[in-house]
Amino acid sequence: MLEIPVIRWGKPYESFDQQEVVHFETGEPLAKVHQANAGLVKMDMRKAQRARDLLREIPISKLLEICKKAADLYMTAKLPLGNGTQTPEEFCRIQSASTGMPEWMCAGNMKKVAFVLEHMDGILDSLTRGLPLDILTRGYGMEERGVMMSYQAHSPVLGLVLPSNSPGVHTLWMPILPMQIGLVLKPGSSEPWTPYRMTEAFCQAGIPRECISVYPGPHDVGSTVTELCGRVMLFGGQQTIDKYKGNPNVQAHGPGFSKILLGDDVVDRWEDYLDLLVDSIFQNGGRSCINASGIWASRHTEAIADAIAKRIGPVGPTSMTDPEAPLAAFTMTGAAKAMNGQIEAGLSEPGVTEVTAKYRDGERLIELERCDYLRPTIVHCANPDATLANTEYMFPMASVVQCDQKDMLKKIGPTLVCTAITEDAQWSQQLLDATQIDRLNIGPIKTNALNWLQPHEGNIVEFLFRARAFQNESPAAH
Amino acid sequence: MIPGEHAIFPATIPSLFGVSLTVTDNNNLDELVKQNQEALDAHTRESVQWHFNPETGSPYWLEKAKSLDFNPLTDVNCFEDLNKFPLFEDDELRGGPVSRWIPKALVGKPTYVFETGGTTGIPKSRVVIDDFRIDYENFSETLPDEYFPKGSNWLMLGPSGPRRLRLAVEHMAQYRGGISFCVDLDPRWVVKLIKKGKIDEVKEYSAHVIDQAMAILGAGHEIKCMFTTPKLLEALAMRLMDEGSSIEESGITGIFCGGTEFTQQWYRFAREELLGENVYITPTYGNTLMGLACGRPFDPADDYKITYYAPQPRAVIRVVDFDDHTKVVPYGETGRVKLFTMTKELFIPGFLERDEGEREVPHVKYPWDGVSGVRPFHEIAASTTVGVY
User: Tag placement on chain A: N or C end, fewer CB within 10 Å?
Assistant: First the structure.
């Protein structure tokens, strides 16, 4: 069987503790993943600075070339994996088998990761606002306009506590190595594949192996990574987000509660945007934080809900190898059932109606022997304060919420991606000023159509580096 | 000891109930097992006679006997007969008066009370007169003098307060001719901090505990032995490394260490990366109800597998079926750890620990069932908060 070791600053480490990753449908063991203990992480983190030191020996311009090469290797090469090897096709197959994500979606996520790597030069240029990148290496330098700039890394490494069920998130950590910050990866138990394949691609492309550690392991390994890395990106539910709120060392990614707001000036033409609404809810299995979980409008909401429900309500699960498989499976026992129960409870509130039921043959929840599915669900909420008006679940589920435009910004709550379709200049300004919105699209843009040149849930450069004063000569007299 | 005889743990201490065991063929494990089983049966009979005799038994058990559908004094004739008792629930240990646990024959002797749990609500209490001393004296006999030199001083880097460990380790140090140096450590406060998500404060508290240990180690007390827990050992070893030293250079040669975090993988990590080959570490498994189970002596062939043996006959561990606690699982199979304690001070005729593990075959040094791979019982593991110690 495939055995995958812990990676400690590039060195494989075989642990006595191992965990099998199994096929979500058959239970067949796919690999044995060696498990780190928290002490290993503590011991290794004492040498974290070496990762940054080694990376700083490589010019960022060279690291950007390495990223391009890594993208190619990730997409095309047969790469070593533990005691075996893995082709890109095998990668998609095994990732699908352990996460319940259809294979074509896994392939799609690979392309996203490769896209980010290939365009890393533009992304860094954009995220640093055109900063000469050697300033990140040296710590200071003069900009062309004659201003001294200084950036100091908060931490020599970034710790990542990665999810098991969302292979799409891996794009977020691609810019770290080219900024000469080492990687400490704690993979999700069902998705070790991307961290290991990406590590191998980076290293074969020229990143020193000593710059990356990969620690699969139990929860306390994740907590230790979170505790000891000066900067951490982690993924979890709302509870996790709340736990780390206000902690400047941690960037917590969770539910997005992404929404589309239809302005009063366009809402009478809502049918023009139906494809956009459906795609925002439904693409990528509706699993992502950038999928829309709410459509807000002041009128026509019942008709909008009905039109979306008619399109996606009949959809059901197919085979994981189906090139158009629309739904991902829930592989964690009881998760789908619990969500279904919450949705049913929400539907019992006044003014809340499920619209998809009439277009769906059968129940929303499909329980199989080893996995479950939730079929697409569109809910109409006549009241923006209804529980389901602001919820997010990891399948194509959205609420169409009736709400006056003047009240929308008061009611939408934290929103990762907000697409506001409007040409109302005054409202647009209010949207621009609304701090509860992270990514703002004004115009007919799908919530899941990300421009990677834009910061996502905070600028990663600002998260990793502190802009500060630096002088090596006295300022002009004043 | 007569030459040629084999000391069965804890045969170096005279049996409290007068059961003495002398084994003359120490190479025949089957024979050892058989004789120990006979001794255990005899010990069980005497134990029941003590705890259910109106002249000697505790108010708790004398009262409890009235609700049993059998008569312990006549119906318990061997260890297996303890299955007739309902499972002991440790919630019974909460609250007072704690005098209900003291056997009448021992009333008036100086008594300690040790607590377990208690982060919230009323802690569980166990009264003790001499058991902790006996348990740790017995355990002391299993420590290799080469690494735990008699007369050397100890560092007790573990919980203080109303816990048995602090006094027990101190007594063992004294029993071995040394002095124990202790730190202040309130594990309940740490659990509260963890539950509130105050990780920075947990780190500060942990550093405060390690500061105390560093001060003791650096003060010329000639400490060679230590009790600690896996997390605290990690923290101490790394602090010493950060200061250019090590556990070995600090003078410590022997460590005994306990807790379910002492896993096979952690054992290897500790030996390979924290301690080096010149520092001896032995795992132990115990709690306030049981005393101290010993780890099978280190053998490279075991690949760091940790197997514990209870201090029979004072305490017995059985690995039982998850669905039927009266059935012992076959050797090598997984089950829940069930504990029995039979000392003059305490009678526990079957308590399901919050741990599970694999049943292990007897060892010549401990010719009775052992348990390996001890870990939190899978059904309650997720809700357990593991603190600094």
Answer: C
A 1-40 near B (Cβ less than 8 A): 15-17, 35, 37-40
pLDDT digits (tens, 9 = 90+) for B106-123: 999 999 999 987 777 889
Measured in angstroms, the CA of B303 and the nearest CA of chain A are apart by: 9
Claim to verify: residue A327 and residue A273 sit in the same structural domain: yes
List, as ranges, residues 187-226 from A with C-beta within 8 Å of B.
220, 223, 226
Which pLDDT score, from 0 to 100, does residue B301 have?
Answer: 87
On chain B, the residues whose CB falls within 8 A of the CB of A37 are: 263, 265-266, 269
Q: Is B259 on the interface with A (CB under 8 A)?
A: no
The total number of structural domains that make up chain A? 2
- Range of lowest pLDDT (A163-172, B101-110, B206-215): A163-172
Q: Assess whether A247 and A295 both reside in one domain.
A: no
- pTM score: 0.88
Same domain, A138 and A247: yes
Q: Are residues A175 and A187 in the same domain?
A: yes
Query: Which DSSP helix (H) or strand (E) runs through A71?
Result: helix A60-76
The C-alpha atoms of residue B275 and residue B265 are separated, in whole angstroms, by 14
- Boundary residue ending a domain (A200, A234, A254): A254
Percentage of chain A surpassing pLDDT 70? Answer: 100
DSSP letter string over B102-158?
A: S-GGGTTS--EEEEE--SSSPPEEEEESSHHHHHHHHHHTTS-TTTS-TT-EEEEES
Here the CATH number for the domain that contains residue A364 is 3.40.309.10
Q: Give chain B positions within 8 Å (CB) of A15.
A: 265
In this structure, is residue A133 part of a structural domain? yes
CA distances to A54, A204, A298, A436, B246 from A405, in Å: 53, 53, 6, 16, 66
Taking only the tens place, the pLDDT of each residue in B86-105 is: 999 989 999 999 999 999 99
Span A418-425, average pLDDT = 98
Q: In the prediction, which pLDDT does B9 show?
A: 37
CB A46 within 8 A of CB B242: yes
Do A227 and B242 make contact, defined as CB atoms within 8 angstroms? no
Task: Determine whether the interchain pair B265/A46 forms a contact, defined as Cβ–Cβ distance below 8 Å.
Answer: no
Is residue A449 situated within a structural domain? Answer: no
Q: Is the pLDDT of residue A167 over 80?
A: no
Mean local confidence (pLDDT), B216-239: 96
- How many other C-beta atoms lie within 10 A of the C-beta of residue A468? 11
Cβ <8 Å between B265 and A42 = no
- CATH number, domain with residue A146: 3.40.605.10
Domains of chain B: 128-383 (3.40.50.12780)
Residues of B within 8 A of A250 (CB-CB) are none
Say whether A37 and B273 touch across the interface (CB within 8 A).
Answer: no
CB B240 within 8 A of CB B250: yes
8-state DSSP, B275 = I
Residue A478: the pLDDT is 81
* A232 and A300 housed in the same domain: no
Q: What is the ipTM of this complex?
A: 0.84
In whole angstroms, give the CA distance from residue A386 to residue A347: 9
Domain housing A272: 258-442
The answer to whether B168 contacts chain A (CB < 8 Å) is no
The answer to whether residues A285 and A215 belong to one domain is no
Chain B residues with beta carbon closer than 8 angstroms to that of A16: 263-265, 268, 303-304
